[in-house]
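pinned: reference chain
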Amino acid sequence: MELQITSLDGKSGGSVTLKDEIFGLEVRQDILHRMVRYQQLKAMAGTHDVKNRSEGVRTGKKFKKQKGGGARHGDRKAPQFRGGGRAFGPTPRSHAIDLPKKVRALALKHALSAKAKAGEITIVDTLVTKEAKTAALRTQFGKLEWANALIIDGAEVDQKFALAARNIPQIDVLPVQGINVVDILRRQRLVLTKAALEALEARFA
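pinned: its C-alpha cells
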C-alpha cells in the first residue's frame, strides 16, 4: 500500500510504501478483542476491599449461652448482624490475565491493518512546532481534519508539540514505544511520522 507523506502545513512530501506483513493483514476481530480485554483488565486498580468477619470492629465475645433458647450464635461479627463482617466480599487483587507475547504483537499488526484498510492512516514527515501554542496547532489540525486522532512520533516527541497538543480534546500524542491497540482503536485517525513508521518496521522485522 502506498501513501502520500504530508506535513503539518498540508504540503505533500513524497510517498511511502507500507509493508503488507504489518499493514495488509486480514483483520481478525477475535484477536483485537483479546488484546483490548488484556489491556483493560491490566489497567484495573483492583483496590476494592471490605471488612470481613476477622476484620470487624465488634466484640469477639460469645454474646449468649450456647443452649437455653434462641439460635446458637458466636460473636456479633457474623455477617447476619448489623455491623458484622461482609461474607465473600471483594478483596484487593490483580485482574490481569495472561496473553502470549506473540499474540500481543499480532494484535498490534491487526490494529494497524484495520486502520490501513479503512483509509484512516496519515503519514507525516515530522511533528515540530516553533512555539507551544495550542490555538495555532488546533487550527492546523482543523485544516488537516484531525478532529479525533492518535499521533505517534519517533522515540522522542517534540516537547513544544506535546505541550501544544495536550489540551486539545480527542487528540493523543505518544512516542512509538507507547503505541497500543486500545488507543489505536479508540481514535478515528492514526497519524504516524516517518520515524515512527521506520521504528515499527524495525520492530516487526
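why pinned: Helices lie at 20-23, 29-43, 101-117, 134-144, 159-165, 181-186, 194-203. Residues 101-117 form the longest helix (17 residues).
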